[in-house]
Design goal:
alpha/beta; Metallo-beta-lactamase, Chain A; seven-stranded mixed beta sheet; binds zinc ion
């Protein structure tokens, strides 16, 4: 079994779940426990079944439910030390510090965290490998880091932030300082930036892209989709691009593992040889 599902993704709460035969991992605990449990149940998962929850950073939309999960269900909460402290979780019995860049194994799932650029203490994205499939979860970053580019180029599924439309952000309800923060290098990716990262770093036509963490005030699902598709079309790329719902379970992936291919480097090496 392999099922990856978006439970919610947006500025008001994020949670993704990956279930295999040997582990059930929650990525982000950005929903309060009653709603989180309800959404997990819609996928046939009891909250007490969670093997662990991995938290990327201390903003509420990523960690608000972590303490309840730990205290009511004993769920191991995993993040780097600075994030555990910033979330106020370091005192809990079931926390487990995972240094940035480390790979952890949970049953047949391997997770590696990598640094992103955001106005948080030590924010990370996640690169996941399981049963021959690879996926990246990267939200809350003002720009592409080298690690993000590498993760995207290795992934069968790319979950990437398309937070705002630039025009909506500039003309929308946010005050100047907030517009600067959101649109800045330690803020959030715009639709155009997300499209640019996909065009540059996705290497195969069968890669799926899910746009995530859309702003309620400064974006719409249709605008995000159109903008990213336009960027892809301008480069002659056709990919399966979808948009995650902000406030309810939406996209699900059970994708078949791809056959192992020679990497570009190996291929070039063999040509030279
Ligand atoms: Zn966020
Ligand atoms: Zn954030």
């Amino acid at each position: 079994m392999f099922v990856f599902r978006v439970l919610a993704s947006g500025s008001s709460g994020n949670a993704f779940v990956l279930r295999t035969d040997t582990a059930t991992l929650l990525f982000e605990a950005g929903l309060r426990l009653p709603r989180l449990s309800k959404y997990l149940a819609s996928e046939g998962i009891a909250t007490s079944d969670l093997s662990a929850v991995l938290v990327s950073h201390e903003h509420r939309d990523h960690c608000v439910g972590a303490e309840e999960l730990a205290s009511e269900h004993g769920t191991p909460v995993i993040a780097n030390e600075q994030v555990l402290r910033a979330c106020g979780l370091a005192h809990l019995a079931s926390v487990d510090a995972m240094p940035v860049g480390q790979t952890r194994r949970f049953g047949d799932i391997e997770v590696t965290s990598f640094p992103l650029e955001h106005d948080a203490i030590r924010h990370v994205g996640f690169f996941v490998r399981s049963q021959g499939r690879t996926l990246t979860i990267a939200t809350d970053t003002g720009k592409a880091t080298g690690d993000l580019r590498d993760a995207v180029s290795e992934s069968d599924l790319v979950v990437i932030e398309a937070n705002h439309d630039l025009h909506m952000l500039q003309t929308g309800p946010y005050p100047y300082h907030l517009r600067r923060r959101v649109g800045g290098p330690r803020g959030h990716l715009s639709n155009l930036q997300a499209g640019g990262i996909i065009v540059k770093h996705v290497k195969r036509p069968d890669v799926r892209v899910w746009l995530a963490h859309l702003s309620k005030e400064n974006n719409t699902p249709l605008l995000a989709l159109r903008t990213v598709r336009r960027v892809l079309q301008a480069e002659g790329m056709t990919l399966n691009v979808e948009v995650a719902q902000r406030d309810r379970p939406s996209l699900r992936w059970t994708g078949a593992p791809r056959p192992r291919q020679l990497s570009l480097l190996q291929h070039e090496g063999s040509v030279v040889a």
